[in-house]
Amino acid sequence: MQQLIFVVMMVLFIGCNKDEVSFINIENNINNTQILTTKEREIAKSHIENAKKYNYKLITTIDLKHKLDNNENIEIIAVVPIGLYTLGFIKGAKNFEFNSEFSGIWEEDTKNPKEKFLEFLGNKDKEIIFYDNGETNAITATIWAKNLGYQNVSILIGGFIGWRERNFEISFDMPECCRI
After folding, report:
1. What is the CATH number of the domain that holds 44?
2. Which residue range is the domain that position 102 belongs to?
3. Which residues contact 55 (CB under 8 A, 6 or more apart)?
4. 57-89 pLDDT, tens digit each
5. Residue 40: pLDDT above 50?
6. Per the CB 3.0–4.6 Å rule, which of 35, 109, 160, 170 could disulfide with 88?
């Protein structure tokens, strides 16, 4: 019975077309406590306008967990300081630091080389999901990805905080790319 309710909720939330996960679905379900936690709702409210303005998608922690459980071909990038990243992250997430305020000047938005970012992003057809700890670092990363020609980009609503609130798996085993 719980599985049936979950499937129905996912269909109602996502819709029939899985490519339609966007600010519209988040906005329409902002008060649904089965879809968004309190923290996720707070963060979603601030992200909706930017998602509309910069044309990127928003994804819930439940949706990301579903994608991971189904081994979907996605790239997850934590845009938090390396010190926070080493304390735990979503399994498979790479780390690339960005500042929280988008300036439009690469050297002001990150200390890392653009080539490394492009390497992390990989194929332009792959779905890329950015997350932070509730700041706006993920917005900066998403805007840069969009400016570099990547269209299938999303921000995880609630970020790592939302992920932990749901007690989803946390990893400490850094991918090879991110080891110090």
Report:
1. 3.40.250.10
2. 2-178
3. 146
4. 999 899 999 999 999 999 999 999 988 898 999
5. yes
6. 170
